[in-house]
Design goal:
Layout: E1 2-4, E2 9-13, H1 19-29, H2 35-47, E3 58-63, E4 66-80, E5 83-95, H3 103-110, E6 116-120, H4 128-133, E7 137-146, E8 157-161, H5 174-185, E9 189-195, E10 198-209, E11 214-222, H6 225-230, H7 232-240, E12 247-251, E13 260-272, H8 286-289
Parallel strand pairs: 5-6, 11-12
Antiparallel strand pairs: 1-2, 2-3, 3-4, 4-5, 6-13, 7-12, 7-13, 8-9, 9-10, 10-11
Helix pairs in contact: 1-2
Length: 292
């Protein structure tokens, strides 16, 4: 069921049967992306179990029986200092030109849960003021491009590959082990940092930059940016084996202890809701499910 307007526009949740027309709409809204990009991402969303009664895929606008607008929603549950929190990554918001006046209806349907923290991690530059007027605030101001191998080595620090049933992996929480396994299945590199008998989880995604000429990594998850700094040299050695000498890291400012440059206003991340997101946590978001 959904909400119908006098104009004949219907707003409702997306179902798997809608995928064909949803992809058509996304391809119209983002012509720079091939259809295969959207098809693969929706398949990954469909492979995830539905989380409680939250929308499984997001919301759409329909007119005359056809999809004319889409807003994808990717829900996840995170561990925080205050307990579990629900996050929703709002992604790929697009509405056909002739129905664009109903865009706000699509947005309001998607953000109606007050117990959820909503993320917008890829707003186009021309939409940033709009989402700020809708109540979104930045939690990441830009990105640092660091060369972790140039950080000084630290004693007693070791970096190993994640193996789900290993003794080292058991030192992580159950949700962290599941997260690393899930993201490894989606092509990410899961690592465990070891120091003083404690295990620290890390996730990286392969990227290219400078016109797709230089391989690099993108930090998808760590508990805290201080962890990345502490393990930077060990991380750099592991990434160098993959010819990845640089790493993109979301940050509010230059990260002390890392060698590299900070780029303000590069891919800022936004949120709205009760829980401020952590820097260095893009797990279960469009960055992974759909790709960079």
């Amino acid at each position: 069921m959904g909400k119908a307007f006098l104009s004949g526009i219907l707003c409702r949740e997306i179902a798997e049967d809608d995928f064909g027309e949803v992809v058509d709409c996304l391809a119209r809204g983002f012509p720079e992306r091939p259809r295969a990009y959207w098809e693969a991402g929706l398949e990954r969303m469909a492979a995830r179990p539905r989380m409680d009664d939250y929308p499984r895929f997001g919301h759409l606008l329909a007119f005359g029986g056809h999809v004319v607008g889409v807003l994808l929603q990717i829900f996840s549950r995170r561990e925080t200092a205050a307990g579990d929190a629900v996050f929703c990554n709002l992604s790929s918001w697009c509405v056909d030109v002739e129905h664009r006046s109903y865009s706000i209806m699509l947005h309001m349907a998607a953000v109606k849960r007050k117990d959820v923290t909503y993320l917008n991690i890829s707003p186009a530059p021309h939409t940033r003021k709009t989402i700020e007027r809708l109540g979104f605030r930045r939690y990441s101001e830009g990105q640092m491009i660091a060369s972790p191998l140039l950080s000084p080595p630290r004693s007693g620090v070791r970096m190993i590959d994640f193996v789900a049933d290993s003794a080292e992996a058991v030192r992580l929480t159950a949700s962290e082990r599941q997260m690393l396994a899930d993201h490894a299945a989606m092509g990410c590199l899961p690592l465990i940092g070891l120091k003083d008998g404690e295990a620290h989880p890390f996730l990286f995604q392969s990227r290219m930059f400078l016109r797709e000429r230089i391989p690099c990594a993108h930090l998808i998850y760590c508990r805290d940016l201080d962890d990345f700094v502490a393990f930077a040299h060990a991380i750099g050695r592991r990434l160098a084996k993959r010819r990845q000498l640089f790493c993109f890291i979301d940050a509010k400012a230059r990260v002390s202890g890392l060698v590299g440059g900070y780029f303000a206003d590069r891919r800022p991340r936004y949120y709205q809701g009760p829980t401020s997101p952590r820097l260095g946590d893009l797990a279960y978001t469009e960055v992974v499910l759909f790709g960079p």
